[in-house]
Amino acid sequence: MKVEIQNHVDHLPSISGVTVPSTHDPHLLDETCLMLSNLLAKGGRMASKTPMTCDGAEKESMALSEIDRELSITVITEADTEDVLDLLKRFFFKDEPLNTYIQLGECKELENYCTKSLGEKSSFKAVNGRGEIVGVILNGTIMKPQPGDDPSPKLADKCEHPKFKKIMAMMDHVDEQFDIFELYPEIDRFLDCKIISVDTRYRGMGIAGMLTDRTLEYASRNGIKLMHVLCSSHYSARVMEKMDFGEVYRMEYADYRVNGEQVFDPEKPHVALRILTKRLD
Fold first, then answer.
1. Are 6 and 57 in contact (CB under 8 A)?
2. pLDDT, tens digit, for every residue of 212-257?
3. Of 60, 197, 257, 280, which residue is least crowded by CB atoms under 10 Å?
4. Other residues' Cβ atoms within 10 Å of the Cβ of residue 65
5. Is 239 helix (H, G, I), strand (E, B) or coil?
6. Number of CB atoms found within 10 A of residue 45's CB
7. Rounded alpha-carbon distances, angstroms, from residue 255 to 66, 173, 176, 202, 272
């Protein structure tokens, strides 16, 4: 299953132990993906302390001065669950294109989905020098069904949250239309990247790329030959394409209809749900 990726940073090469410089891409200033409008209004431990009397340039300068650029990438454990959810609630849950469109709000089922694979130790976090999680990539291994296995239950059938159920129903539709094991009959499993989320103040530092690189290393070490990403966001797909992932499936949101009605119509440029993959052999 894939609720998918919220990502709003460009990919830069990972350099272990070296401070990564910040860059600014004006094309990434989309409200949904970057949440720039909330940059200085966020509460919580990592919120900017910039006085409201400062002009925009001063606010940005002071906010950037609080960023700790000494980053490390480490494995997520179940002990990190609450900190991971805190990051996701501040960014992914409310600003991923589909979540934004349906105004998802509080959703325990999404929380459970995000954290259910942490025990695999295949997910990774970006941590600054103060020990704060500023980015995550959440992954899970999907095994090839074997003859005689019972059919997998529909995701929407066991979903009680009415808005989240709409997303799950679309994922069920995608699963009916596209079988990755038919496209890659020689593989017996793949690593599914479910979510990438990065603190907006750390955008442009290559964190998404570093997290993906570490995931690819994990897959290679564990004999996994394919990485799979379902992207609901135009920007997350662009990041993965820069890392040599190729599109294997695409569905325009305008083409997904229930009882003749279009279900999702997020703001442009988020016009399609896409699946991208990368072979590791």
1. no
2. 999 999 999 999 999 999 999 998 999 999 999 999 999 999 999 9
3. 257
4. 9
5. helix
6. 7
7. 44, 12, 15, 35, 9
